[in-house]
Amino acid sequence: MNLWAPVTIGNLELDNRLIMLATHLNYCDENGIVTDRLVEFYRERARHGPGLIIVGGCYTEHLGMSTPTMIGISKDEHIEGLRRLTDTIHSYNVPVAAQLYHAGRYAHSMVLGQQSVSASEVKCRLTRETPRELSLDEISETINNFGVAAKRAKIAGFDSVEIIGSAGYLINQFLAKATNKRTDVYGGNFESRSRFPLEIVECVRKSVGSNFPILYRMSGEDFVPDGFTLNDNKKLAPKLVEKGVDCLDVTGGWHETRVPQITMNIPRGGYTYLAEGIASVVDVPVVACNRINSVTLAERILSRGKVQLVGMSRGFLADPALPTKAQSGQHLLTCPCIACNQGCLDKVFMIEPVTCTLNPLTGFELERKLGPPGAGKIAVVGGGAAGMESARVLRLRGFDVLLYEQSNRLGGLLNLAAKVPGRGEFAAYISYMERELNHLEVDTRLNEQASVDKLVEEDLDCVLVASGTVAGAPAIDGVEMSHVTSAYDAISLGLDNLGDVVIIGGGALGCYTALYLASHASSVQIFDSDEAIGVDLGRSTRWVILKGLQEKGVQTHTNAEVTEIDSDYISVLFNGYHRRISATTVVLATRPQPHDRLLKRLAKTSLRTEVVGSAKKSMNLLEVIHHAYKLANSLQI
Question: In whole numbers, what is the pLDDT of the chain averaged over residues?
Fold first, then answer.
């Protein structure tokens, strides 16, 4: 089965089998009205021709809204903006569906201005609030609102609708025993708990007519105690089809699931089996999704002949041109999604507009255009994330670029991060950038240190210093001892037989180091003076990292100030009391410092110098890449 072969959903013809899935963006105004930002985001994706774009979630009523800036379809006043959006997407001959959304207990009272609603009054792990139970009359009204919203979608020019019955939202809350404690017709046995989604499908079908395609997004497995299993969903899926669903879009898990779903440690395509399981019991097209970030993987999934379509969301954030590049034989030049979640899911949880760590244009299609053509010779010193992105953008603008990297490979500290268990996707970004810079004919000089004399001899117009950071050494007695090393060296040198390891510093660097060293040591402990471990990790990733530390037996200690390092132990201040902790190896994972030695030397020359990335100040990967893009794109010679 070919990814680029046509397929039909109901009577809707798709030119290919690659679907851009609904993506929560937070680009609307506070009334859910479509903005120019949203339109331009989808214009950029539509012009590269996915088979179908699903827009959403689009909240069907006020109580269904999880953030104030998500897309509204709950009022007639939303139609005009939605029509502008569908017209834009249709101008590229791409069909578009609206995802009909109700958050249920996943909505915050702070956002709603009132208590959220659900099947039953069961406290929500995600919001830490307890919803109120919907009455029978309210259930009827909620179902009707799905139907009215579907009718609005049809009026606004959408070619289809998708009902979201996944991720732990309202429909899941009715299906699962965990959240449905009702004793009326909507609670109790499987049939009664399934009544709510089936009635929604019936209502939507009645509202849009027999020839308007309906998709349904389902959690193939809830991965929560007393949630729906794959076997449960195999029973539900044919009933949905019988009521009028034309296509099933199968994902996995809820937002509160303690089984990782879309983080970096999940193997690519790891949940495809859920879609294939559903496909075995229905005769309508099924969409596989979750951690699918390349056309190669998509084609491999389709080749098994079990599902008919493949869906991606974050892949289109990282590179809107994914379909074009694939069909023109340039798929190796596609910027991959590395599932870091810094620019997407973490932003959603903070109720901020979505972007992409690796693609600084995502969400900024209106503001960030490639700068004016440039002429001149620029050296970029440092081949980490900041240096690679700077070189890429400068070369796109037409500058002659020399990229200096003192090691034998580009990537900088990302090479170390990629060695950490579950963090291997960082290597995919490095490989992509190596190919991209080679394609752009950037003069890359590996194993070459950029000295001041060398840079002066090159007759440069500007030097961008992207030298990153060096390990920080805290002011603790004993840091100079032979059994003390930095986190950078502990990973890069592949140290083994480390005995009892103590890591000083419990931020992201300390956590990653502990994950790596856990299989190289007798024991690993992390000490941090803060009140929590991993506070600089994104919300969607932090719990996964902490879970990994626990599984590997790493002990973590907070409010613990290390005051001294001796040959066999460290001294730690806990709540005013000192304790000695045995330590064969001590690893320093405190905040790194800017590597500014070259910068200080260049300041004594007449060379124009700019600083980019973490060499300027402490930044995470998203901040580094976006800073590099903006500086390189605005640079004038």
Answer: 96
pLDDT attached to residue 356: 98
| Domain assignment present for 294 | yes
Please enumerate in sequence order all residues whose Cβ is within 8 A of that of 577, keeping only pairs 6 or more positions apart, or say none: none
- The two beta strands, 96-101 and 52-59, are parallel
**Is there a single domain that holds both residue 174 and residue 34?**
yes
Q: Is 500 exposed, middle or buried (0-12, 13-18, 19+ CB in 10 A)?
A: middle
Q: Which amino acid is at 338?
A: I
**Residue 134 structure tokens:** 């919907």
Query: HSE-up of 477 (CA within 13 Å, CB side)?
Result: 8
CA 238 to chain centre: 32
DSSP reduced 3-state for 284:
coil
Question: Measured between alpha carbons, how far is 124 from 254 in angstroms, rounded to an integer?
Answer: 12
Task: List, in sequence order, the alpha helices (H) in 321-424.
Answer: 322-327, 345-349, 385-396, 414-417
Q: CA-CA distance, 486 to 509, in Å (whole number)?
A: 10
Pairwise CA distance, residues 631 & 44, whole Å: 23
> What's the CATH number where 183 sits?
3.20.20.70
Beta strands 7-9 and 12-14 are antiparallel
pLDDT of amino acid 471: 87
- Answer whether residue 2 is part of any domain: no
H or E element in which residue 429 lies: helix 425-439
3-state secondary structure at position 286: strand
3 state SS of 415: helix
Q: Report how far residue 406's alpha carbon sits from residue 382's, in angstroms, rounded to the nearest whole number.
A: 8
Q: Is 164 left (phi over 0), alpha (psi -120 to 50) or beta?
A: beta
Does the pLDDT value for residue 473 go beyond 90?
A: no
Q: Look up the domain containing 523 and give its range.
A: 484-591
The number of folded domains in the chain is 3
Put the strands of the sheet holding 560-565 in their side by side order. 560-565, 569-574, 577-582
The Cα–Cα gap between 357 and 340 comes to 8
Predicted TM-score (pTM) of this structure: 0.95
How many helices (DSSP H) and strands (DSSP E) are in the chain? 21, 28
- The DSSP symbol for 63 reads G
